[in-house]
């Protein structure tokens, strides 16, 4: 199964946050699953760090090594994701979440998130 980690899920993993459920941890650790981080999440993290709204437990430069060591991949934003985005209903207004939703729909990925608004797009979320 292909899974995209929502930005807050990635942050919680990096922090070792207790909000990561056993179900989520099991899905992430299952070697049959392919874990992706959207470029939109990297963009969001970078902006939040640069304006002082976020401090990660590791430097941003180390995040890329962490993703690689974990066996995950960064999912690039493709032109087809923007085309999907232009017709996406506005159940969710956050621009970073909207592109992640577009990527999930466009590539038939499931999403690991605690944000229930994503369900209104018919996504399978964990």
CATH homologous superfamily descriptor:
5'-nuclease
- Label the CATH architecture: 3-Layer(aba) Sandwich
Indicate the proportion of strand residues.
5-15%
Describe the sheet with the most strands: 4 strands, parallel
Q: What letter string, H or E per element, gives the SSE order? A: EHHEHHEHHE
Uncertain ranges? none
Adjacency order of strands in the biggest sheet: 3-2-1-4
Helical residue percent? 40-55%
Distance between the termini: 12 Å
Structural domain tally: 1
In total, how many beta strands? Answer: 4
Structural class: alpha/beta
In round numbers, the mean pLDDT is: 94
Rg from alpha-carbon coordinates: 14 Å
Highest CATH level, the class: Alpha Beta
Work out the helix count. 6
CATH topology: Rossmann fold
Please state the overall shape, judged from the principal axes of the Cα atoms: globular
Task: Describe how the helices and strands are arranged.
Layout: E1 2-5, H1 7-15, H2 22-29, E2 34-38, H3 39-50, H4 60-69, E3 73-75, H5 79-86, H6 95-107, E4 110-112
Parallel strand pairs: 1-2, 1-4, 2-3
Helix pairs in contact: 3-6, 5-6
């Amino acid at each position: 199964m292909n899974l995209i980690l929502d930005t807050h899920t990635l942050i919680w993993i990096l922090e070792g946050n207790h909000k990561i459920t056993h179900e989520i941890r099991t899905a992430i650790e299952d070697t049959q699953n392919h874990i992706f981080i959207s470029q939109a999440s990297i963009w969001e993290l970078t902006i939040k760090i640069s304006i002082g709204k976020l401090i990660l437990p590791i430097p941003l430069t180390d995040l890329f090594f962490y993703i690689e060591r974990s066996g995950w991949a960064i999912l690039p934003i493709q032109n087809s994701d923007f085309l999907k985005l232009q017709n996406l209903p506005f159940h969710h207004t956050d621009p970073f979440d909207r592109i992640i939703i577009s990527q999930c729909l466009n590539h038939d990925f499931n999403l690991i998130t605690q944000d229930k608004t994503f369900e209104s797009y018919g996504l399978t979320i964990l």
